[in-house]
Design brief:
alpha/beta, Rossmann fold, Alpha-Beta Plaits, four-stranded antiparallel sheet, globular
Length: 303
């Protein structure tokens, strides 16, 4: 049985359809990414999945239970890491875990027996009696992740779990998520970091303007959507150079500000051209998931 099945999901606000017929399902033990620019419908989709918002059409089965009809029972099997930390500042680290566990009907003794394991997972050994205000942002995020495991959930829903963290804290969260993935936990992850999705996700869906526009494994999407090599050309006249010369070497190019993005099968001829142009700088790299995302959703800023 799939931990989550979404079929033909639709949700509108007034006359605006923010989720337009989205369908996907998770496989047990996989990390599934839900990506999209601001306003793509990710948050609304999550709210419908968790029974916090009623869809206008479609079906949702969460842990084998229909949502929203049995949303409360279904959420008992789910661990949630919200976009913003909602730890209680009046409680200590361990008290936050105990109080949260009570929402799932767990006895205090059972929760306290799990606390050492949860704190070790979060790298917070010795912090059980610490007040929340004394923790760094990375510590709070790791505690929120550990708290989501207090009920030993079948599915973890992580809404942008590393937003606002420094690189060290992000990498530590990634380590913990890889550990959960290795244990066979099923994870639904939303993120704006394409490197995060590429590192962690077995499969992912890209949403844009309420519609699912791509679905598959990260490397499969990259191979299907983008030329294998990318050369980013920087400089005041990068755009002028690209319009005059890039088409001779690249299958496709885009100019954004002072950067020209050239997509190629073989970068050697283009790089030889650039070597004779000291006024321009360049970066040669393999194509990645961010290239796919920008090709499918565009480079314009979304609010």
């Amino acid at each position: 049985m799939s931990p989550l099945v979404v079929d033909g999901l639709r949700k509108r606000y007034n006359d605006h359809e923010v989720v337009a017929g989205v369908s996907f399902q998770l496989q047990t033990g996989e990390c599934f990414g839900l990506l999209g620019p601001n306003g793509a419908g990710k948050t609304t989709t999550l709210r419908c999945i968790l029974g916090l918002s009623r869809p206008h059409a479609g079906t949702i089965m969460l842990g084998g239970l229909p949502v929203p009809e049995q949303a409360r029972q279904a959420r008992m099997r789910v661990g949630i890491v919200p976009q913003m930390d909602n730890l209680d500042p009046d409680f200590t680290v361990s008290e936050n875990l105990v109080v949260y566990g009570r929402y799932f009907g767990l006895a205090d003794a059972a929760i306290r027996a799990r606390i050492p394991q949860l704190l070790a997972f979060a790298g917070l050994e010795g912090r059980a009696s610490a007040k929340i205000v004394t923790l760094s942002g990375g510590m709070k995020r790791r505690l929120t992740l550990a708290r989501a495991l207090v009920n030993d959930p079948e599915l973890l829903v992580l809404d942008e779990p590393t937003t606002g963290l420094d690189p060290q804290a992000r990498h530590l969260i990634w380590e913990r998520l890889k550990h959960l993935r290795a244990e066979g936990k099923t994870v639904l992850l939303t993120t704006h970091f394409m490197d995060e999705a590429e590192r962690l996700c077995h499969r992912l869906a890209i949403l844009d303007r309420g519609k699912l526009i791509a679905l598959g494994a990260p490397r499969e999407l990259i191979a299907a959507q983008i030329e294998p090599q990318v050369v980013e050309v920087y400089g005041e006249d990068a755009g002028g150079w690209a319009h005059a010369h890039a088409a001779r070497h690249a299958r496709r190019f885009e100019v954004t500000g002072e950067t020209a993005f050239c997509y190629l099968d073989d970068a050697k001829p283009l790089i030889e051209d650039l070597e004779g142009r000291p006024e321009l700088r360049y970066l040669h790299r393999p194509a990645n998931l961010e290239d796919v995302f920008l090709k499918l959703t565009g480079r314009e800023l979304r609010d």
